[in-house]
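Work Package 3 committed the consortium to producing structural models of liganded targets before the mid-term review. Because experimental data for this complex are still outstanding, the team generated a predictive model from sequence and the ligand definition alone, so that downstream docking and mutagenesis planning could proceed in parallel. The input record is reproduced below exactly as it was submitted to the modelling pipeline, together with the SMILES string for 2-oxoglutaric acid.
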Amino acid sequence: MHAEPAAYQLSQDQVMAYHHTGFTVAKALFSAAEVAECKNHFDALADAGVPIEGHWSPQAGEDPLARYPRMFHPHLFDEGSKKRLLDPRVKSVLTQLMDDEPIAVQSMYYFKPPGARGQAFHQDNYFLKIKPQSCLAAWLAIDHSTPENGGLQLCPGTQDMEVLCPEPADLTESFTKEHVKPPEGHEPVKLSLEPGDVLLFNGSVVHGSDANRTTDQWRRSFISHYMPASASHVGRWYAPAMMDFDGNPTARASNEDGGPCGSQGEDQESAIH
Ligand SMILES: O=C(O)CCC(=O)C(=O)O
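The resulting structure, written out as tokens with the ligand in place, is given here.
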């Protein structure tokens, strides 16, 4: 049992960095013990290799991501994930950055084993379709996350950009199909994070990750997405997963607007990011 975590206060510099670049890092927001609990829990699920309907479909195959695909919405079947998604420290940093009450929209777990492909550059809100604001991601590092093992890369200053229309991604490098070219003058920054650090980034920031080029380092992460309570619309595929920080289901109008790029989100596969 862990003691109830205290609120986590971002410094003024961290809040300013978020508004100027679109992202900031809350160092050691989760303790080593909490990170180990999370890692051990998902490792046990992965070792068992039993599919979880609607959330996780491991398969045989050469591709490391066939056996260890990402898991969707673990908070809907796993109490520990729900607790992590709705953690009061996360709520306090989100409130500081959003200036609004946050609402949870999505959780995911990435295993990213050695040799796994990365995720081509994209904007989260292309998929989540929250409006009129954008979403906000809280990306919790479970392992040391580095440029070598496929850590995150973000394009500073892209947080106020409209949705940029993707082109097809190189599927030998990326497991997702859409690629947004980093805009000129916004060269990607490659981050290194320690276990327990939480990277917070605006859902319009162009970001992605390279393949895990190591032979022996996993790069696991627990990823959560949120929206401000005052947002009016959300992509329809996320509606069943949404909840407030008391764990109560909450709803918003479904965003059926195809957006500037046409009809993304018409089917579930192209809608889930
Ligand atoms: O963790 C990664 O490699 C990519 C994650 C990502 O881009 C996202 O969650 O939007």
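Reviewers should note the following from the model. The longest helix spans residues 32-48. These observations will guide the Year 2 experiments.
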